[in-house]
Amino acid sequence: PDACIRMVVEGKLAQWTVPQYLDAVEKAALQECQPEILSYTWDGDTASAHVQMTFATFRFIDRFNLVKLNGKWLLIDKLSYRQPL
């Protein structure tokens, strides 16, 4: 719940906590998308992933940072870019 999701919106840095982000996603119109893991890397208990989700008119390109605590991978932060198609 302490993770941050960040992206540039209209030239300004926007930031949400995970609960805020999930609340906004829940209210958004449901659209089909094609997810793809572009790359990932890990070292012991840290990892990062480069992922994209392609929708009909845009795609999100995301970079995730994760940490493994008590046997579970936790999202630390997400940096996102919305690319028009």
Walk me through this protein's architecture.
By secondary structure, the protein is mainly beta. It has one helix spanning 18-27, and strands at 4-9, 12-17, 34-43, 46-54, 58-69, 72-84. Strands 2-1-6-5-4-3 form a six-stranded mixed sheet. A hairpin with a 2-residue loop joins β3 (34-43) and β4 (46-54). The longest helix is centred in the N-terminal third of the chain and has 10 residues, at 18-27. The N and C termini lie far apart (32 Å).
Core attributes:
85 residues, mainly beta, six-stranded mixed sheet
- End-to-end Cα distance: 32 Å
Share of β-strand residues: over 45%
Structural class: mainly beta
Estimate the helix proportion, in percent: 10-25%
Q: Runs with pLDDT <50, length 5+?
A: none
Specify the biggest β-sheet. 6 strands, mixed
Count of helix runs: 1
Order of helices and strands: EEHEEEE
Backbone CA Rg: 14 Å
Strands ordered across the widest β-sheet: 2-1-6-5-4-3
Task: Tell me the layout of helices and strands.
Layout (H helix, E strand, L loop, with lengths): L3 E6 L2 E6 H10 L6 E10 L2 E9 L3 E12 L2 E13 L1
Parallel strand pairs: 1-6
Antiparallel strand pairs: 1-2, 3-4, 4-5, 5-6
Short description:
The chain is mostly beta strands and 85 residues long.
